[in-house]
Structure formats: C-alpha cells, structure tokens
Fold these 2 entries.
Entry 1:
Amino acid sequence: MPRSNYLFTSESVSEGHPDKVCDRISDTIVDAYLQAMPEARVACETLATTNCVVIAGEVRGPEEVLGRVEDLARQAIREIGYEQEGFHWQNCRVENLLHAQSADIAQGVDASGNKDEGAGDQGIMFGYACRETPELMPAPIFYAHRILKLMAEARHSGETHVLGPDAKSQVTVRYEDGKPVAVTSIVVSTQHLDVDLTSHDVRSVVEPYVRQALPENWITSKTDWHINPTGKFVIGGPDGDAGLTGRKIIVDTYGGAAPHGGGAFSGKDPTKVDRSAAYAARYLAKNVVAAGLADRCTIQLSYAIGVARPLSIYVDLHGTGQVDESKLETVLAEVMDLSPRGIRERLDLARPIYARTSAYGHFGREPDSDGGFSWERTDLVDDLKAALT
C-alpha cells in the first residue's frame, strides 16, 4: 500500500546559480544553431568559474554560428544579470572549444537510404504527471520553482534592487491522504548586493514572494522558515562556486518525485533522445492524466544509438488507473510516433526554444505561442480516449 501521510521535499535553483548559468549558455548556443539551420547538431557543455567560461562539445551547422559563440555566452550572462567583480559579462574570459561532430556518431544518427533517423545515443527517459497542481506537476518542485521565478521577475523589473542573481529554494510539503495540504518548512538562500543586510533583512524582502508563490493557507504558524540560514551571501554565481551544464537534472524534472534517466537536457539539439524523448514522455504522461485515465502516471522510454524506434515503453499508473497499463503501452505507441524524427515533428522541436527552459524547470510551464514548451500541451486527450474505448 502506498503511504498516504508523509512529508516530501524538493529544491530549485535560480537562473543565476552557477550550474544554471552554464545551462543557459549551452542552450543559447543550441538556439543559435537551430535558428540558423533547423537540422543542426549540437552537444554543448559549459563550465564557469571566477571570470572564466569554457565551452566544449561537438556541433554540425553553419560556420558563422561558431564565430558567434563568445558573444552568445556574454549575452546569456548579461541577461541573467551578472555585472560583478568576480563574474562580469564584459570582462570574463570565454574559451570556445567546440568542434565538428564525430563522423561515427553522425553515421548512426542520420537518415540514409531506407534507414530512418536513429537515436543519438542509448538511454532511458522518464515522464511523469499527477493531479497535485493544475499544471499536473508534483507540488514541492512546482512551488520551489515559483518562489525563485517571482524573485527573479522582481529583480529584473527593478521592483527590488537588493537581490543578486544566485538563489536556491527548498519546499517541504505535508501530504494527507496522498494529497498536498500544507508547507512545513521553507528554505531560501539568495545572493544580496548590500553587504550589510542580515538574514532578517533578507527575509523581509523575500517573504512576500514566498507567500505569493504558495497556495493560500499552506503557510501556517507551524511552518519553519530558513532564509539565508548561513548569514551573508554576497559572493555568488560562478565566482562563489564553479558551474557545469547538466548538473541539476532533478531540479529540471520532477524534484525527485519521479525517476530520472541517465542524461541531462541542456546543450543538446532535439535529435538527442536524452532531451526529446524525455519531453515526449512528459507529453504522454500529462495527456494520460489530463484525459482522466489516471491520477498519477510514470512513463519510461528506452532507445539504442542509431535505432529509430524505442526498445521499450513502460507505464505505471501507481494504482490510480482507469485502464489496463499494458493496453495503454500499446496505445501510446499508436497515437504518437516515438522515433526521434516523429517526436521532433509532433512537438515541433527543431526551433530556437531552449534557452527559456534552462531555469525554473522544463516541465509544468505554459506552452508558448511560438512553440516553446509544446510538450506541455494536452492535445492528445481525445485520441487517447478514442483509442481506449
């Protein structure tokens, strides 16, 4: 029997967190290549430390984009808001080590003759959805993201001038009868630009955004608050701690409430199933829950490099399903082509839509008018219902 009364915690990090700075740079480069050539191939990793950014990986696309990589990195850092002595968009050193894609990888992935486009690598990918929020996301990660997003919006708009780009949040939610009902603890650590601010001062700035982010009545007199619990937090971002692309995969997905596959998302074009198949799995899981077929749904897909079709499809409805899981596995493969090409075309992924995914989660976001977050649509509901009747 699943537990019905428990506490569960998830964390998020802001766009100015060192790892997220790297995700943003990598995805900005992905967008630039896809803007210039939708068939481009990109596998881009970024490292950032004190006033230094190193970009490495493999690409296939227009040469002119390669020449813009340094400017793209500086643009990303500037948009995040880093103009500090230890990390400044104008003054940091940017080293570009990108090179041409391996011919051995290319021959496995590219379509040729009667061979369809294959997966860019082997691996397993997961998608998840549940009824805990209107966005069909687990509550702890959804609200941890929302706190930091509201703080970032206030910083960018000029509503507050004391917060720096680097921040982390953590939310512990109490569940009763399997449903989220209250927050038992809140942790927010945020960089601040005024060296004289105390933790109490920072709480007075942050608390309104926390309360705005969370459902009414979820914060009670028993909720524990930990705002900048270590005290001063002035040195932040890559100057305070080195960052790497792809090091916040649980933040990017479901906050630990669901499994995660072996690969990160940022820095990869949509032929890489680490990214595109994880989006497809979320798309399918969300539509299953939106269709009323289950209250919770986990989907696993698996692939082999160079092979177009998934090796397996697994569905777990966690005892909440209205349909047979094995039947649903068959139907999912019928209502959506889960080859790399099929996923890319169904979700229209060959677009410059990825920099915006690099912070505050890849899932639980509103679909954008230009095709961003297309995997959050619920336009498969009718097809699923029809196939299962």
Entry 2:
Amino acid sequence: MSETPTPPRADAAIDVQQLHKYFGDLEVLKGIDFHVSTGEVVCVIGPSGSGKSTLLRCVNRLEDPTSGKVLINGTDITDPNVDVNGVRATIGMVFQQFNLFPHLSVLRNLTIAQRRVLKRDRAEAEQIARDNLERVGLSEKAEAYPGQLSGGQQQRVAIARALSMNPEMMLFDEPTSALDPELVGEVLSSMQRLAQEGMTMMVVTHEMGFAREVADRVVFMDGGVVVEENDPVSLLEDPQEERTKQFLSMVL
C-alpha cells in the first residue's frame, strides 16, 4: 500500500489524489489515491463504514473533500473557481434509493431534467427518454407511474434517467442493496450492457459476482484506505492482503 501520491494520469476520467475527508473529528477517508480510466469499469468493495460511498460522493462533490484533489477528465472539481454543476452534468449518478418523482410518469421522470437543465425541446427529450428506456428493457413502461413498477424496474428507470443526460461516466452507489434478491439480476444486466457499450463506470457494490464478471478492476477499501486493488480474478481468488482475505472469507 503506497503512501506516495499518484501522479496525474492522462487517461483518467476520474483521478483522486491524496483525498482526505473528515466528519467532525472522524477521518473517513485517509489519503485516497484512486483512478478510473476512460472506458474502464471499477468496482469498489469493502465492509460497511469503510468509506466507499463517501469516496463516491466526493467524486461528484456531493461531499466536499477536506483536502486532496478530484479531477474529472482533467478538471479539478475541488478548485473553488470551477463550475461544479458544469462538470457534474457529465456524470450520471444512481443511488440506492431510486429517487423518482411518484406523481410523474416514467417518461416525465426522464424528460424533466433534460428540458430544464439541457434545454431540450419536448420532442427531442421524449425521444432520448424512450431510447434509454429501451436500453434498460422498459420501453413498454413509458406511461406507467413509479408506484406501478417493481423495485428493480424503478432502479432501471433511474439508470435510464441518468443516461438521458448523456453522461460521460456513471457512478453507482450500491444500486441493488434496496432490492429484493430476485430483482437484483435485472438491474445488474442493465449495468452489464452499459459496460459492454464502453461506459466509464465506478460502482460501489457488494455484488461479488457482478464485480467478477463485469469489472476491469476491483478495489478493496477498509478503514478509509485502499487496501488492495487488482483485476477481479486475482483480487477475489488470490488476495494478497490479510484484511482482504478476512473480508472475502465472510462474503464469498
């Protein structure tokens, strides 16, 4: 585990350098060096409280880092002079909870931000929304309301909504943890299709099968640090660090 800062990477869509985050006196992130290359899928695993979600939220400035840098396609979004909303517009985010508007149809859920933020006209926004519903296998649900959908369908709508903003990368924060087990597969299948299309993805997950099959790299975090990272097979089947071995022995 290296303590030397990672030099800026020319190919990095996400480049986190010496990131520290405190909540009061509690240091949650302890000098994280982390990157995701353009077109790469990186899964971040680790026990609850290890700092995974905080790292993810720092990547698009939902949390402000205490110190360190976060570069998105070379732009330092921790710089006070940066247009954070402009950079954030390039990042799609999918949370544990679906955060759909219950009083709006699926189609309206997918068009409202397109029209307000990207200033698309109604016809263009609706066409893009329908195209993205097709990508997640929900073309027939455009006129339905969130309450008429299963949890898995709602999460796929949330993915389609994020895609409708034409993001350059996608962040997923435990996207299946609120779902019944039988609904998890349909969401992971939608994410797998995105990966096959070449989408840059950072995925905080406890789905080890997904990490093994889809990730280019798996990062294990514990105690606010990156303990170990490697390709999925190497990390999951032959971990080098004792903390990684202990974690995997409990979850695999």
